[in-house]
Amino acid sequence: MNLKLKRENILIKEPTLTPEKELEYRNTIAVFEKKTTDLEAKASDLAEENADLKQQLAIYKKALFGQKSEKTETVVGKGVQLSFFDEVESEADISVKNAEEAITVAEHKRKSKRTHEEILAELPCEEVIHQVEDKSCPECGTEMVTVGKEFVRDELVYIPSKLVRRKHYVEVVKCPVCGSDETKDAALPDIGKAVFKKAAAPAAMIAHSFCSPELLAHIIFDKYCQAVPLYRQEKEFKALGVELSRATMANWVIYASKRWAMPVWEVMKSELLTSKVIHADETVVQVLHEEGRKATTDSRMWVYASSESSVHYNILFQYAPTRNGDNAVRFLGDFSGYLVCDGYDGYNKLKHATRCGCFAHVRRKFVEALPTDEKLLPTSKAAIGVECCNRLFSLEREYDGLNEKGEHINTPMTPEEKHKQRQERSKPVLDGFFAWLVSLNPSSGTRLAKAVQYAKNERKYLYRFLESPKIPIDNNRAENAVRPFTIYPRRNIIREVG
Prior knowledge:
By secondary structure, this protein is of the alpha/beta class. 42% of the residues lie in helices and 7% in strands. Helix 10 runs antiparallel to helix 11, helix 10 packs antiparallel against helix 13 (447-457) and helix 11 packs antiparallel against helix 12 (415-439).
């Protein structure tokens, strides 16, 4: 017998829930829903953190193995064309005409490759004439005579350095008349004695030392300009035949800095403080054997530089164990001009100086936020930030008559004209940039969020360059001066000269 059951013939009775049981189930469901929401949020945060860590890893790999240039074709790729300014312009209501004018760069011709003659023109010249060994005529045997010379090639000759012992003597002279009569009794008081005289010898550069001005200049140049530490110089001098210890060289450098360099440094500081614009920066250094501090403790080397508009180009360094803004106060004192620096708020302790921002720092933050995949650049907000900064730098080069390589191709604008052009052309670009920043809402903790927040925090300082044509839009002056402390091994910078 076959039995068929149909759904409509089956009655299902719903279980009856008591109010207490229903409340319990609802609470359980709410707990699970909250846990699900928390897990989803945590997963989203972990995904963002993972993406940020991948980006940091890519940045560190590039810092170690990639090109160090910050040029646009390097950071975004030579085949990628950035043209994102429509979005920025729409936020600030900037006309397309003004935007096109903002990126107009004067045409320039590529500099031709230098010839050997141009490269070697300023060097002393030594001619080598290779003579004919057999001057007999191959036809008749008569001895041939020289009628000229024919140029074959140029060579650049390197002459290795050498050490020479210089012995100083003073000339001794004697009067041929006084005391010349030897037949007379020299013991009598009325008899003249022989008269001698010695030449005056110049004082030694360092008392009781065989250090010459040339040797000391070479040691200081190698250490501070060529980044050759004293222990390597010690080996080089040994190879040249002289045992010259690094301790001795260190003592010479310290003595020279106190005896000759510090008075010059003080004069340079006095002149620097009269400038209208000063650049300031600081970087990490390590000092070994510093009393009361561990060798792993980070110290700071502060740098202060005059602006390009100054008569003299002054760059002064000052060591400090900390990054406290009081160090800048002690150096600059009551300086009341414009101070161009990065986003470090320690400079706010200067009560009289007017702080100015740096667009190179802003641009660098957006460069760090660029996606590592070039395919993502067309939709990248970070790339828009880079392009905004590029616009401002392009305008500045145009005002100064420079091309993209920093070469002069046109006459620079007068300060009055530069100030006017900044108001008419740079300010709209700047307004558009910050209007665009306000419209962004990047995920918290990402590189883009940090770049956006940095720019917003620096807004009033970044606008400052519009006040005076003497104020630059970046702090590259100080950064370039302090770069040796970041490029070369830090332990070799201050370890031997205290």
